[in-house]
Design brief:
Helix content: 25-40%
Number of domains: 3
Number of helices: 9
Strand order of the largest sheet: 6-7-13-11-12
Structural class: alpha+beta
Distance between the termini: 24 Å
Length: 299
């Protein structure tokens, strides 16, 4: 079987890339090559790609804009299915926004603002796609995706289904969608009519806060660790004396200890070693085991 030719027959030759450097497709700017990187442009193509991978026992991983992803230095032996720019449509009807999985959260929030809809302000600065945000129930500043999701169109075991908010079983940085390895295609968000200038003011306030407190000027994958119950990961790391701690060119951000940043040329090994060391030291000092929020794939 020629995998490359099969993929091109499914997705179109213009949408299939071989030995694709994954550092181009993650906000960490780190990662070895993927054997195949495919950018399908229809739901049917996504479904067919998933079926092909499963039927032939080929490892696969579905990505958006790579904002919560670390690809190991050896790359990914299999197929990366990228649902991003070809699935970025956003539509509005009354107080409801329907967004494709590849649409950026920031773009959906700007659409809400343009239509005087409130409810997305706290999510507007998260650098991820709708698909990833729904999957992991992304949140910030007191709000989460579960607060506004009505229903989500997914691929579940090869079938396209509609999953309600309740059926999604959202939890802290998780959902049934994530646990059952469903693939998000689009989601429906219910917002409320609001005052446009007030919405814009709140978005600006939160963006200014984010820019002043988080290392947005350097490549990272956002919050590196999940928040342990009753604690804040950044404070535990800081109180362990690890502010600015480095392994190679990976560093615990001096600006916000909850972030690991790439100071230029960091390897995935640098990041993984740093994360393990940080987790071990925090556990020794406080008896709290930090769990990664960033997804790590590859070899």
């Amino acid at each position: 079987m020629n995998i490359s030719e099969e993929l091109k027959a499914i997705a179109g030759s213009e949408n299939v890339f071989e030995n694709e450097p994954m550092h181009r497709h993650t906000t960490f700017r780190i990662g070895g090559n993927a054997d195949y990187f495919v950018t399908p442009d229809t739901e049917e193509k996504i479904t067919a790609l998933l079926g092909f991978a499963k039927d032939n026992a080929i490892p696969f991983y579905v990505t958006g804009n790579g904002s919560n992803l670390l690809v190991k230095d050896g790359g990914f032996r299999g197929i990366i299915i990228n649902i991003y720019k070809s699935f970025s449509d956003i539509s509005v009807k009354d107080d409801v926004i329907t967004a494709k999985a590849g649409a950026l959260l920031s773009a959906a929030a700007r659409t809400a603002l343009a239509n005087s809809l409130t409810g997305m302000e706290c999510l507007s600065g998260i650098p991820g796609t709708i698909g990833g945000a729904v999957c992991m129930n992304a949140g910030a500043y007191g709000g989460e995706m579960k607060d506004i999701v009505v229903e989500t169109k997914v691929i579940n075991n090869g079938r396209i289904e509609i999953i309600s908010n309740a059926e999604s079983d959202f939890g802290y940085r998780t959902s049934r969608i994530m646990r059952d390895n469903m693939v998000v295609l689009e989601t429906v968000l219910k917002l409320e009519k609001g005052n446009k200038s007030a919405i814009e003011g709140r978005m600006k306030e939160l963006m200014d806060m984010r820019n002043s407190k988080q290392p947005v000027e350097l490549p990272s994958a956002g919050s590196t660790f999940k928040r342990p119950e009753g604690y804040f990961a950044g404070k535990l790391i800081d109180d362990s004396g690890l502010r600015g701690y480095s392994v190679g060119n990976a560093q615990v951000s001096p600006k916000h200890c909850g972030f690991v940043v790439n100071n230029g040329g960091a390897s995935a090994k640098d990041v993984i070693t740093l994360m393990k060391n940080v987790a071990d030291i925090v556990y020794e000092k406080f008896g709290v085991r930090l769990e990664p929020e960033v997804r790590i794939i590859g070899e």
